[in-house]
Write a structure and sequence with these properties.
The chain is of the alpha+beta class and about 200 residues long. The chain has seven helices and nine strands. The chain is about 35% helix and about 20% strand. The N and C termini lie far apart (about 55 Å).
């Protein structure tokens, strides 16, 4: 017996699910609204970067993929978990967001880390419903829907191609490199993924 315990210990359904990543290449947007297929793809991919201080021997960010953001703990194939996620999304009309707290303006060593202030403003805009009502544009290669404005966040950083401080060629090469890493990683799961899920990945 535990005082003040909730029995049964079951909460309600969330209105928003946030997939958190840290992009060290500086080419993923700070926030993007995902379709069910994109949510499955990015959930299966589990992309982020190992940051110095999180693991022994890591001195600078390294791109890494961990299926469902927790690969060592999976019992079933990652696609099964992704399909369960999509089913719950549709049953409860849940929005899924990809939130990037990594670099903006350039890759690690060139750009700057997205500030905690701006990341918090984005999370607040998600929970307040602001981003649900926002206007969106399509971000190329990854085909993500990115908001045109977010309260208290500079418009420029919402689109990495606009925030990029280097040349357009350098940006294209960098986003192409990350897209290739995504595609190479996903080959491991493509045999059980539907064409819809595969099509939700980046296009080079």
């Amino acid at each position: 017996y535990i005082p003040n315990s909730k029995v049964p210990c079951i909460g309600g359904s969330p209105q928003n699910i946030i997939l958190l990543t840290c992009d060290a290449f500086g080419v993923l947007p700070p926030v993007a609204k995902l379709t069910p297929a994109q949510a499955m793809y990015h959930f299966i991919s589990g992309y982020t970067a190992k940051i110095a201080g999180t693991e022994e021997g890591v001195t600078e960010p390294e791109a890494t993929f961990s299926a469902c953001f927790g690969q060592p703990f999976l019992v079933w194939h990652p696609v099964k978990y992704a399909q369960m996620l999509a089913q719950k999304m549709q049953e409860h009309n849940v929005n899924v967001w990809l939130v990037n707290t990594g670099w903006s303006g350039g890759r690690y060593g060139v750009g700057k880390r997205i500030t905690l202030k701006h990341s918090r403003a984005i999370i607040d805009a998600i929970h307040s419903g602001e981003l649900k009502q926002a206007e969106y544009s399509t971000y190329g290669v990854f085909n993500l829907q990115i908001p045109k404005t977010v309260s208290s966040v500079p418009t420029k950083i919402l689109d990495p191609s606009q925030a990029w401080e280097g040349s357009a060629q350098d940006f294209d090469e960098t986003i192409g490199k990350l897209a290739h890493l995504f595609q190479t990683n996903f080959k491991e799961y493509a045999d059980k993924a539907t064409p819809e899920i595969i099509a939700a990945g980046p296009e080079i």
